[in-house]
Structure prediction request, 225 residues.
Amino acid sequence: GQNIDQPTEMTATEGAIVQINCTYQTSGFNGLFWYQQHAGEAPTFLSYNVLDGLEEKGRFSSFLSRSKGYSYLLLKELQMKDSASYLCAVRDGDYKLSFGAGTTVTVRA
Amino acid sequence: ETGVTQTPRHLVMGMTNKKSLKCEQHLGHNAMYWYKQSAKKPLELMFVYSLEERVENNSVPSRFSPECPNSSHLFLHLHTLQPEDSALYLCASSQSGEGSGANVLTFGAGSRLTVL
Prediction:
């Protein structure tokens, strides 16, 4: 089966940095995705890693180590609008995307 | 209309009712998905259609019946549901292929289902 673990909740201050870790054990690996989901809204795509290393997109960066089954999402210069749930997901085939339970990030002023 | 549209946004039904959820994508994608999202649980993949053929069926009870009449539309027919089926049902679409943009899921806002 698939096992994708991430912390349930994190709290940080506006302007700070937060790192959300994700560890996975899956039967196959064809890429790792991060999605953001605000309460009552659709998940939206943030980043994709298929090779080891860091992918940077503005204030958000995502890192992958395939040998360790590990990824993190780094959120810099936190803003109030970054308060949301962050979902780690692993693709293990052509179509199947398995998700973690999500990490709720609360940004405080 | 752009993106992925789901209707209805909210649905309350009794256990003996028959209802349907509808999903429409305006992105020209060739794959569509149904996911179930329950509180504090990971998204659960229910069904995947690629080019209107079902390619994944994740041991979903038969009281959930998908239908994909064309590459832009996806339905989830509901019949004799149980209270534990109450959840947010998310539709998504993607374009299969190579490259970093391929296979990225675009989600709809979901249909919040309550079974009494």
Observations:
- DSSP finds no helices and eleven strands in chain B.
- Chain B touches chain A at residues 4, 31, 33, 40-43, 45, 48, 50, 55-56, 90, 96, 100, 103-110 (CB under 8 Å).
- The CA atoms of residues 3 and 26 of chain B lie 5 Å apart.
- The longest strand of chain B covers residues 18-25.
